[in-house]
Design a protein that fits this description.
This protein is of the alpha+beta class. The chain has ten helices and 23 strands.
């Protein structure tokens, strides 16, 4: 090596040390070179959802929302680890104006590409390095609308706002790697005008008042998929207490009747969670709760982690603990165990629907076997539960045929083995991501039986399988 080459090598080494081993070699796609993270994780149903090149560890959101103007101001700090040598990376962010981006303590270049925030650091980020991104942003939130998947996002209401939606909603109110494959912990601080409530996920961390505004703080220490993050602002009757040594926070919109069906249903949250724990194993999170909203545009309930949100239609005919059982079952199946791809949604909805059957039977109503017989007769077997297609993602087959598969598994392997499968599956995959092939292999291992043909018939076969 010549003296010139030695000096050049020394300079490269010095630069690497000064940037934490991060020197970008932009434009070179070699395996060891710095390159952009993918602008999407390639999910067949939502190819541009999420982003590649990094794994988020935590979000710290500091938000201020004024319902009078529908203006959101945000400061998001994201801790992440690079999973490749990154020259730049994307965050999902829809419709808000970004004022600044910093990586660790350095300004970073940024620009918008539709609903993508493209961030270019001053120097490349080496694979395995942990880094911090801080994004300042503001604006009027816009909803994420889809003709086949519905609407999600931060919805302006008469007295505040509701951030809710599946499969996409988070990117309407904070920069995010918006796919359940990348779960993270959350700290959420929400400042709203005095007199309003600001509810979110996890453990309540107190409130603070200053200058006509109140800041509400929440912390979710278990990894959470981004679509399960929620923000509910407005006039609510809030009930705080504890259950099984954990905080239990429920809230009902002030315009819904005091002591009415919604309030009476949510009051059973702890009881229902305990029943499900007797079937599925220990409750997986540090808090319990639920929120009943009054805005009729919310025509569904969603299993937002630790604190499901229920639309008003569920309580128009009286108390409805069955929907509470469904959403609480998701705390195990869907929240603690999140799907790796949206094609596997039956792993969430089939198990939660089956929890409805178990709860109804527990309450002295229709047995799980009777529910199975009823749904078996009503099922269109041409519609698969697994990989139903984007347009049918929230269709009947995912929910009801999914539940039929769960009960058929129970009849096939017997109660003792079946409930051991469910409890061990929930315990061993806690806080992780899962898919159907993994569940099939797990059920085979626990039962000691070959079940591939069984699951093929019940999940995707085009004719009715024989009743077990």
């Amino acid at each position: 090596m010549t003296r010139r080459h030695i000096l050049a090598a020394a300079l490269v080494t010095a630069l690497a040390l000064s940037t934490g081993g991060c020197i970008a070699s932009r434009g070179d796609d070699g395996p060891d070179r710095f390159r952009p993270g993918a602008a999407g994780l390639g999910d067949p149903y939502l190819p541009t959802a999420g982003n590649g090149g990094y794994d988020v560890l935590s979000y710290h959101l500091r938000l201020r929302y004024d319902p009078a103007t529908d203006q959101l101001t945000g400061d998001a700090t994201i801790e992440a680890t690079a999973t490749q040598n990154l020259s730049r990376f994307n965050l999902d962010l829809a419709g808000l104006t970004v004022s600044s981006v910093r990586i660790d303590d350095a300004e970073a270049r940024h620009h918008r590409d539709g609903a993508e925030l493209v961030v270019t650091p001053a120097a490349g980020i080496a694979e395995g390095r942990r880094f911090r991104v801080r994004v300042g942003y503001a604006g009027t939130p816009t909803l994420i609308e889809s003709s086949d998947l519905g609407t999600g996002g931060l919805l302006h209401t008469a007295d505040g706002a509701i951030a809710l939606g599946q499969p996409e909603s988070a990117s309407s109110w904070f920069p995010v790697n918006d796919h359940p494959r990348d779960k993270a912990t959350y700290r959420i601080e929400v400042t709203v005008p005095d007199g309003l409530v600001a509810l979110s996920n996890g453990v309540p961390e107190g409130t603070e008042r200053s200058g006509g505004w109140t800041t509400w703080r929440w912390s979710e220490s278990s990894p959470m998929a981004s679509y399960l993050a929620t923000l509910v602002i407005g006039n609510y009757r809030v009930s705080t207490g504890s259950h099984a040594g954990r905080p239990l926070v429920t809230a009902v919109a002030a315009t819904l009747p005091a002591g009415g069906a919604a309030e009476r249903s949510l009051a059973r949250t702890g009881e229902i969670a305990d029943f499900l724990a007797s079937r599925f194993g220990p409750y997986p999170f540090a808090a319990y709760g639920g929120i009943a909203v009054a805005d009729e545009r919310i025509g569904y309930a969603l299993e937002t982690q630790t604190r499901p949100v229920y639309g008003p239609a569920f309580f128009t005919r009286g108390p409805n603990p069955t929907v509470v059982a469904h959403e609480l079952a998701h705390q195990w199946f869907g929240d603690s165990l999140s799907i790796r791809s949206w094609r596997d949604l039956w792993l969430n909805e089939g198990f939660a629907t089956y929890a409805e059957w178990l709860w109804t039977e527990h309450e002295g109503g229709e047995s799980a076997q009777q529910a199975f017989e009823r749904e078996y007769a009503a099922t269109d077997w041409s519609q698969p539960a697994l990989d139903p297609g984007r347009e049918a993602l929230f269709g009947r087959a995912v929910y009801q045929r999914g539940a039929l598969t769960v009960h058929a598994l129970r009849r096939t392997v017997g109660d003792d083995v079946f409930f051991r499968i469910l409890r061990d599956w929930a315990a061993q995959r806690r806080d992780g991501t899962v898919d159907t092939a993994e569940f099939v292999a797990f059920a085979e291992r626990v039962s000691g039986r070959s079940l591939t043909a069984f699951f093929d018939a019940w999940l995707t076969g085009t004719t009715a399988p024989p009743r077990p």
